UniProtKB/TrEMBL annotation:
Any Pfam family the entry gives: His_Phos_1
SUPFAM superfamilies linked to this entry: Phosphoglycerate mutase-like
GO molecular function: phosphatase activity
SMART domains listed in its UniProt record: PGAM (SM00855)
Protein name: Histidine phosphatase family protein
Cellular component GO terms, alphabetical: cytoplasm
C-alpha cells in the first residue's frame, strides 16, 4: 500500500526573493499568488486527495484553502511542515544578510550550521518526514497534499532521494510548484519535481 504525496510550495507573495520572511506574521498572497493558488486547486482536482495539510503561516494557508475547497474539505494545520525557524534573520532583506559571515556559513554548510537562535535544516527535515510518515499510516492508497515552504520541501525530497542536506542547492522548488512522490513500506520514488503551475 502506497501513499502519494503532493508537496506544494505556497504561491507567490510580494517579498519572494527580497526578504527572508521565515515565520514572520502577516505575509499573505498578492493577486498573482491567489491566482496561482486557484490554478493549483484545478491541477489537483482530479487526484484522489484524502487530506490537505498546511503550514500554519498565512501564505501557506491561503494556498491550501482553494485546494481543500476543491475536494470539499478544509485544510488541516500541521506545525511539522512550517517554515524553518530562521531566528534572528527573520524579516531581514537578503541584501542585509549578504555581509553576514554566519549567513555565508549557513548557505555553504546546512549540515553543520544553524541560524542565530533558530533551527537547523536537518531539524526541519526530521519534522516534515515525521509528518509524512504520520499521513502515510492514515491514508494508505490515497493522496495527501502538503502545503509548505521551499527549504522544507527540499529537505523532504533530499531525504527520499537519499542525498545529503548540503545538496539542497541542486534542487529548485518554485512558488506554486508541486513535487510528487510515492511512499510505501518498500521505500519511496520521486515521480515529478518542481511542476510549476501557472494561472
Amino acid at each position: 500500500m502506497t501513499t502519494t504525496f503532493f508537496l506544494v510550495r505556497h504561491a507567490a507573495h510580494d517579498r519572494v526573493g527580497t526578504v527572508l520572511c521565515g515565520r514572520m506574521p502577516g505575509v499573505g498572497l498578492g493577486d498573482f499568488g491567489k491566482a496561482q493558488a486557484r490554478a493549483l486547486a484545478q491541477r489537483l482536482a482530479g487526484e484522489s486527495v484524502a487530506s490537505v495539510q498546511t503550514s500554519p503561516l498565512e501564505r501557506a494557508v491561503e494556498t491550501a484553502e482553494p485546494i481543500a475547497a476543491q475536494i470539499g474539505s478544509a485544510p488541516e494545520i500541521c506545525d511539522d511542515i512550517t517554515e524553518i525557524d530562521f531566528g534572528g534573520w527573520t524579516g531581514k532583506s537578503f541584501d542585509m544578510l549578504t555581509d553576514d559571515r554566519q549567513w555565508s556559513t549557513w548557505n555553504c554548510s546546512r549540515s553543520t550550521s544553524r541560524p542565530p537562535g533558530g533551527e537547523t535544516m536537518l531539524e526541519a527535515q526530521a519534522r516534515i518526514v515525521r509528518a509524512m510518515e504520520r499521513q502515510r499510516r492514515l491514508h494508505g492508497g490515497r493522496s495527501v497534499v502538503l502545503v509548505s515552504h521551499s527549504d522544507v520541501i527540499k529537505a523532504a525530497l533530499l531525504y527520499h532521494l537519499g542525498m545529503p542536506i548540503d545538496a539542497y542547492t541542486r534542487l529548485e522548488v518554485s512558488p506554486a510548484s508541486i513535487s510528487t512522490l510515492v511512499v510505501g513500506d518498500w521505500g519511496s520514488k520521486i515521480l515529478r519535481m518542481n511542476e510549476v503551475i501557472a494561472p
